[in-house]
Amino acid sequence: MTLENLTKEQFIRDFKDTLHEEQLIKVPAATPAELFTTLAKVIRKYYTDSWLERNRKLSEEQQKIAYYFSIEFLPGRMLETNLLNLGILDLVKAGFADLDVDFEAVKNAEHDMALGNGGLGRLAAAFMDSLATTGYPGFGNGLRYKYGLFKQRIVDGYQVELPDSWFGSIGNVWEVRKDHDVVDIKLFGDVYLAIDENGKFSPVYKDAQVLRAVPYDVPQIGFENGNINNLRLWDVEIPEEYELNYPTLADRRAVQDITAILYPDDSNYEGKQLRLVQEYFMTSAGLQTIIKSYLKQGLPLENIHEKVSVHINDTHPAVAPAEFMRLLVDEYGLEWDAAWSTTVQTMSYTNHTILSEALEKWDAGLFKKVLPRVYQIILEIDNRFVAGLAQEGRDADLIERTRIVKNGQIHMANLAIIGGHSVNGVAKLHTELLKEDTLHDFYVLYPEKFNNKTNGIVQRRWTQIAAPELSAAIDETIGKEWRKDIHQLKKLEAFADDDAVLANFYQVKQEAKARLAKYILETTGVEVSTDAIFDVQVKRLHAYKRQLLNVLHIIKLYWDLKDNPDKDMVPRVFIFGAKAAPGYHFAKSVIKLINELANLINNDASLQSKLKVVFLENYNVSLAELIVPAANVSEQISTASKEASGTSNMKFMMTGAITLATLDGANIEIKDECGDDNIVIFGLTKDEVYDHYAKHDYYSRGVYENNPVLKRVVDTFINGTIPNSQSEGSEIYDALITQNDEYFLLADFDAYVSAQERIDSLYRDQRTWSRMSLMNIATSGKFTSDDTITEYAEEIWNLKK
Ligand code: 26W
């Protein structure tokens, strides 16, 4: 079926037929979940032919394909994106209107696909969309977790984690199980080398555990272009022939654990055996199928890099070069040197963080136990690397710093860099930091491998789907071309002084705020006015992201108002959304504190509603779609140098929020695009932060004692002002004062307060503010992930459309 010819009437017939046949029910009686499932089935029928055709064409034309290996994918809901990209969103909405079905309710019946923690997983999902949209052959490779990122509930102000059983009763309606592509994975046991019949060493496995990897493909539909790529997610099963090895339920459960949960930790690495198994499982399964499908083309294996790129998304799949070597040498008989040459040309790696605590290092003993043969191969790679550098006459310390295995640990980033041809950071500043600091030694060895790829976002989700009113306003102003070519947003600049246009955009923002205000009232009972500035910080809770700096400022405003209830200020609503890693004690204390502070402030009538604080539970992609378009202020206030890029900053910009930011990550590039007048920047620069490190001259207690306003704010944590938060308050106080404020909150406090005052004064002049907002939208096109992925495709993977 070609969708250009689809009419509303045909859709209604298809929908009713499917509902009747498959659910045995008629429209008025069906639940939203039944309607959703039915709709998904109808859509699947519409795109299946294109999907088959795409797969056939790619193999027939022997095109080069990139495989994006990632332990996280965070697409959120798929329904609306799929409809939009197929070009039938409006048609389906109109059909539902005729049927008297509430499209919103049906849409909300879909559970977020939350197989990711935050930025890294969301970026991976964005890349899937953009690969299909730009037309480059690029497939995802990951794990089919039964439970996604935990569901967060707030109870008595505390975060409580509940399992996210996202399959629910509906399952994943988009996936297709591919039994013909299963592969086996070997773990544990012993490996020794024996001489085979050809006189070559070959590994003999003893007592290995053999598991089956079963792929499920999720279609990735391009925007109005008929392209459909695959996101392949692996599940684990016990092969029938080994069933006797798992006599008890507990034995079986231990296997199922491999794909049971997504590790909820971000930015803090834990060397857990199960995690290593997860990483290897998805990597080996992916590489095995890649080699098999390549060989079907009848081409020589030593040239596989000409048809295949494997991208290592952060260090989690960094075992890939070693596993690829194992397959090429052990299983397919290639000579080491030929195998190594093609491996290096196949692999590429993205680093997503400079925080050293997030760089994976495996205990060599554990690694050897789980992956005995891969361990031997890593030792061989390392020995050859060291010998090669020694032969070049390299400095012994440099060799020691860059080698893979040392002090009983395997350094996965080192393996990814040595075993690949490309290393990239995710924003200009981040890549500079990698070169001059975090990965400097490797930059000395391989300057040609380093490159930058600034992150991006799927503009379609954040405008057309999340912000329909805004999208309509843009249409009215510059026509609809921007929906296909986001750079057309630039045309809005011509209207920066057009009062009617500015008023229209202001109105659109008010509507989005009203929707969010309604949600806030329903979920928290807090009433907020759309006349207030909606000041938003939504992201994972982490000390370096400095939600606490935001809190310090809120407390300052609280005291200002207590001292002077007539203080002249634009009313503010501070909106937070954040999950903390379950084991991250400090982050959880910050959540508790925000909630108790919110209770104190929201219930104090003397503040006359000039100040409100809201913590929205269970921040996820779908909630972001509600929050982002409603923001006036986008808080991007990490300590300079710590946030690799950030991507929510881009979403806020594109929907007309003003960024309040430090010069960190992609904030710098946002400033370059929108211009100094349309952003509010404050705080220490990366050089100033590094200067403090070098001189060891930062003394937070001194700052605290010399600044009475700040002192009063900080003392608020421990003097009983905020009820029910004694232990959290003193923990926070200690971090700031006793432990010398690792992230320079106190150093940036004054600058942040001034920046906030500037926000206040800018907002008073509605015209000025609306102009700034429009200029942000107009200049946000640079941050489309369509362009980011084009750079990956052309500069790293060497793909053709
Ligand atoms: C091993 C535990 C672990 C898990 C995940 C450590 C580190 C991570 C990720 C690297 C954390 C992450 O999501 N990083 C974010 O990546 C985004 C996409 O590039 C960037 O925009 C964010 O700045 C960066 O924090």
UniProtKB/TrEMBL annotation:
Look up the domain of life of the source: Bacteria
Keywords recorded for this protein, A-Z:
Carbohydrate metabolism, Glycosyltransferase, Pyridoxal phosphate, Transferase
Q: What would be one Pfam family of this protein?
A: Phosphorylase
Identify the cofactor(s): pyridoxal 5'-phosphate
GO molecular function terms attached to this record? 1,4-alpha-oligoglucan phosphorylase activity
Which family is it part of?
Belongs to the glycogen phosphorylase family.
Species this chain originates from:
Streptococcus caprae
- Annotated protein name in UniProt: Alpha-1,4 glucan phosphorylase
Looking up InterPro entries in the UniProt record yields: Glycg_phsphrylas (IPR011833), Glyco_trans_35 (IPR000811)
UniProt key word Iron: no
The record lists the catalysed reaction(s) as: [(1->4)-alpha-D-glucosyl](n) + phosphate = [(1->4)-alpha-D-glucosyl](n-1) + alpha-D-glucose 1-phosphate
Q: What class of enzyme is it?
A: transferase
